[in-house]
Automatic annotation (TrEMBL):
Domain Major facilitator superfamily (MFS) profile span(s) in chain numbering: 42-470
Membrane topology: Multi-pass membrane protein
Protein name: Major facilitator superfamily (MFS) profile domain-containing protein
Keywords, sorted A to Z: Membrane, Transmembrane, Transmembrane helix, Transport
The keyword Ribonucleoprotein is assigned to this record: no
Keyword Cell membrane: no
Localization per Swiss-Prot or TrEMBL: Membrane
A single GO molecular function term of this UniProt record: transmembrane transporter activity
Region named Disordered: 1-24
Transmembrane segments: 38-55, 86-108, 120-137, 143-163, 175-200, 212-232, 280-305, 317-339, 346-363, 375-397, 409-431, 443-463
């Protein structure tokens, strides 16, 4: 028997922790190796799924301007989406999404992550494929409601799921990579829409380009959902892709900031306690204000680009929407990583607010020069720079509460906060699909971001920039005394 095998066996027999068997340097190396394995397995699956989620959810934005140069081939003409009907479809989606999202994390807690998340992914993939068969405006309303029911709970479910695997110091960078995939989806959406526009009229029977778009986007989603069922691990304690030693290290490295597997009972008093906390409503409102930026860009970026210049039509508008999404992908990951390193969540929230606010201000003031207006589109794509540290900040603060900080509270506060924030899907379409001039619309969205910025400044003053670091230091001092 090798020395390493003997040490592992001895550790299991004597119930010693890995940290007590290995030196600090060796244990640190093993921690990094385990974390790398966890990242490869979890982040790859969840990021791909979220990219597909965002593509399937927002494909109407691209479908809306597909094949508009061919009479009778566009979705707008075939479904009669005139006079604000496009905004009504988005509103119907988010109204259903909000209702079914609130209890989502409680279902994840009840049935387990892999089953719950795979069910969601497979469900919305099937509904997306069915979108190709829609023939009327009313049918699209029903389809979007079904899509909302199917995919509600995915985003807050993943945020909650990360609390099983990552501690407070690691979540923002992982959130950033996960959410940044939605920014990258804007690039793929543009490419897919451009390619599918050339499929217009092909097939037996002949299908329009936007119908091909739904089929091509929906089928891979179902496949990924099946893979998630078999490959996504539920908890560190039961992860089959880790060895016994690695499972012990994965559990021990989390400390007290992670949600535990054995916290399986739903505690209703914790839910009531969350609803009584003022900071729950404060952060929910801030997230709601910031989410208007992502909702506006996700559903109306091609249309906004369409309005920048008469030459930006059809395929050209689809292609122009790609570079802002790529920039958002890079900066979202970068800022999430720096947010973890510096422990300064409010500072990065304010940075995101400033950048997006500048974008809306440029669009509101400059009505003629294409260059600055195109720069504004790049800035509008950066709303997630503010949302990522806010998500990490929210969950950390919930865990740091002296009471109501069990897994039920963490799970419910996450899903309820995201559900309230998704009301932006009702607000943004009402603003951007209204008869108001574009500059007035931008002033309204600018005002929402300014209010969110003021809230972030308040967080910096009230909680402090490094509230998680201060709390952990206090706990270390108390334990050592």
């Amino acid at each position: 028997m090798s020395t390493k095998e003997y040490e592992i066996k001895e550790m299991e027999q004597t119930s010693q922790s890995p940290e007590s068997v290995y030196s600090d340097a060796d244990f640190h190396k093993k921690q990094k190796k385990v974390l790398r394995k966890i990242d490869i397995r979890i982040l790859s699956l969840t990021a791909i799924a979220y990219m597909l989620n965002h593509i399937d959810r927002t494909n109407l934005a691209n479908a809306r301007i597909m094949n508009t140069d061919v009479e009778g081939s566009s979705m707008v003409d075939q479904l009669d989406l005139h006079d604000g009907r496009f905004g009504h479809i988005i509103t119907a989606f988010y109204a259903a999404y909000i209702v079914f999202e609130i209890p989502s994390n409680l279902l994840l807690k009840r049935f387990g992550p892999s089953k719950h998340i795979s069910r969601i992914v497979i469900g919305w993939g099937i509904v997306t494929v069915c979108s190709a068969a829609v023939q009327t405006y009313e049918g699209m309303i029903v389809n979007r409601i079904a899509l909302a029911v199917a995919e509600s709970g995915f985003f807050p479910g993943i945020l909650y799921y990360f609390t099983f695997w990552y501690n407070d110091d690691e979540r923002a960078s992982r959130f950033a990579f996960f959410v940044a995939s939605s920014s990258l989806s804007g690039a793929f959406s543009g490419l897919l829409a451009t390619g599918c526009s050339y499929l217009n009229g092909l097939g037996h029977p002949a299908l329009s380009g936007w119908r091909w778009l739904n089929i091509i986007e929906g089928v891979p989603t179902v496949i990924v959902g099946i893979l998630i069922y078999f490959l996504l691990p539920d908890y560190p304690e039961t992860a089959k892709f880790l060895t016994e030693e690695e499972r012990q290290i994965a559990v021990q490295r989390l400390g007290e900031s992670a949600t535990k597997k054995d916290e399986g009972k739903i505690n209703m008093s914790s839910i009531v306690g969350v609803l009584k906390q003022w900071d729950f409503w404060f952060f929910a409102l801030m997230w709601l204000l910031l989410a208007n930026g992502t909702a506006a860009f996700s559903f109306f970026a091609p249309s906004i680009i369409n309005d920048l210049d008469p030459d930006f039509q059809g395929v050209k508008a689809q292609l122009i929407s790609i570079p802002p999404s790529v920039l958002a992908f890079v900066l979202t990951i970068t800022c999430g990583y720096l947010s973890d390193r510096t422990r300064n969540r409010p500072g990065f929230i304010i940075l995101g607010v400033v950048l997006v606010s500048c974008g809306y201000l440029i669009l509101a003031v400059d009505k003629k020069v294409v260059g600055p207006r195109l720069l504004a589109v790049f800035l509008l794509a950066l709303a997630n720079i503010a949302i990522i540290p806010l998500a990490a900040f929210r969950q950390s603060l919930q865990r740091l509460q002296s009471s109501n900080s069990d897994s039920t509270a963490v799970g419910f506060s996450g899903s309820a906060t995201v559900a309230i924030a998704n009301a932006s899907g009702l607000i943004a379409p009402a603003i951007l699909d209204s008869s108001l001039r574009l500059d007035y619309k931008c002033y309204i969205l600018l005002a929402l971001f300014i209010v969110a910025g003021i809230q972030a400044i308040f967080c910096w003053w009230w909680f402090g920039a490094g509230v998680e670091l201060k709390k952990s230091n206090n706990e270390k001092e108390e334990s050592s005394s």
